[in-house]
């Protein structure tokens, strides 16, 4: 089916500061009802976007790469609330979804602070590989570096775990040793473990408590809470965790 003919749904999520009520943004997300993973608003992206909103001042004037962005909710929050430069990446077939979400939020003209680029994890010396992304980034935005990497539910497909960490490791070990990778994941099996891959690629990780950024899951569960038109089933968000991965 042609992309333009697929069924679409536009939903709003509001982010508000608990102390300063004037600090508020509205983000609009377009979901495309398609089998492609990147066309949906995953619960993990809700948690990541709240993390980004709570710590938005940490990202101010930084350069942030989002991997496996899909509907790009965390990057949209960053772009609307900070002066961060965002590189929004995903597989080539998901790039139109990203561009549609940028246009929906009137961010498609912000080429000085937002770039969209296809990225396929684990590849090198190709148009969609991480080394090419870094080279293009350095040419277009000289004298800057990638400070943070964001990912939502990036540890979804086990066959891609190492490819993801290879790409993350390349950035940390070859581009910026101070770079940190923040990623959310939804626990689907207790048998999944990435520790051996972290050791193999010279990385370490720690878990970040959702309490540390005052995550309120009722916003996404309570039908009467109008701050989010995106709703998930009760209990879904309890299985979402956030990791900080950096150089070992």
Could you characterize the architecture of this molecule?
This protein has 248 residues and is of the alpha/beta class. The chain has seven helices and nine strands; from the N terminus they run ββααβαβαβαβαβαββ. The strands form two sheets. Strands 5-4-3-6-7-9-8 form a seven-stranded mixed β-sheet. A two-stranded antiparallel ribbon has the order 1-2. A hairpin with a 7-residue loop joins strand 1 and strand 2 (24-32). The mean pLDDT is 92.
Features:
248 residues; alpha/beta
Task: Provide the helix percentage.
Answer: 25-40%
Low-confidence segments: none
Average predicted local confidence, pLDDT: 92
Distance between the termini: 45 Å
Shape: globular
| Order of the strands making up the biggest sheet | 5-4-3-6-7-9-8
Beta-strand percentage? 15-25%
Backbone structural class: alpha/beta
| Total number of helices | 7
Please give the largest β-sheet.
7 strands, mixed
State the total count of DSSP E strands: 9
Rg: 17 Å
Order of helices and strands: EEHHEHEHEHEHEHEE
Care to give the gist of this entry?
With 248 residues, the protein is α/β, with parallel strands linked by helices. It has helices at residues 43-54, 56-59, 73-81, 95-104, 130-140, 161-174, 195-200; strands spanning 8-16, 24-32, 63-67, 85-90, 114-118, 148-152, 180-186, 203-208, 240-247.
